[in-house]
Amino acid sequence: MTHSHALSVFAALLLGTAAIGAHAAGPNADTGIYVGGAIGRSSFSLSSSNRAPVPWGGEKSSKAGTAYKLYGGYRLTENFGVEAGYARLGRVSQWSSVGGYARLQGGSGQALYAAATARLPLGDAFAINGRLGVSRGRISGGDNWVPGNQRISGSSTGVMAGFGAEYRVTQSLSITADYDYFGKLSKQAKGGMLTVGLKASF
Q: What's the predicted TM-score (pTM) here?
């Protein structure tokens, strides 16, 4: 699936989420099941190990990209719950020096996560939230020419954390703004994302 196709599918899912949320009915939107989607910008932190300057006329390194996430969860109470999701963090690249030659290594970041959630309502419509859990991250790429201890590609498991805010538009539909940090995606790369989106409660 191409990047543009992925964004098209994501947009359709967001619209579907909004439609479901607008028509879903429930006695209490502060407990029960919810689903959501969000889009925004990722940021990567790469190890300086064997980093090389960008050669003259070369493509610039990339440490940020278009990102999106899809997730679902269950609020056990008004304040606490659980959540799981998938995040696509976009492309990352870095010039490295191997054998005296500078070459560009790169890949795409993604993460699966599961977390406990906390929510603090501030009035009838506004709330702040937090997430703390475990993430399984991965940077996929074709940089096998780089020694294993210098590759930005690979996978890793670690602690993830996130926080944000939500504004309830209707009884079951909210607008969200979040920052999620997924820790190590590989031995040489860490990543996070800042997003806005929609969340539907049932």
A: 0.77
Using alpha carbons, select from 61, 50, 151, 154 the residue that is nearest to residue 98.
50
Q: What is the pairing mode between strands 32-46 and 173-184?
A: unpaired
Give the CATH number of domain 3-201; options: 3.40.640.10, 2.40.160.20, 3.40.50.11540, 3.30.1330.10. 2.40.160.20
pLDDT tens readout for residues 100-144: 677 777 788 999 999 999 999 998 899 999 999 999 999 887 666
Q: Kindly state the tokens that stand for 170.
A: 């209707």
- For residues 195 and 181, the answer to whether their CB atoms sit within 8 Å is no
Give Cβ neighbours of residue 144 (< 8 Å, ≥ 6 apart). 151
Asked if residue 34 lies in contact with residue 202, where contact means CB atoms within 8 angstroms, the answer is yes
Summarised one tens digit per residue, pLDDT across range 147-157 is 666 778 889 99
User: What is each CA distance from 108 to 23, 61, 87, in whole angstroms?
Assistant: 36, 13, 11
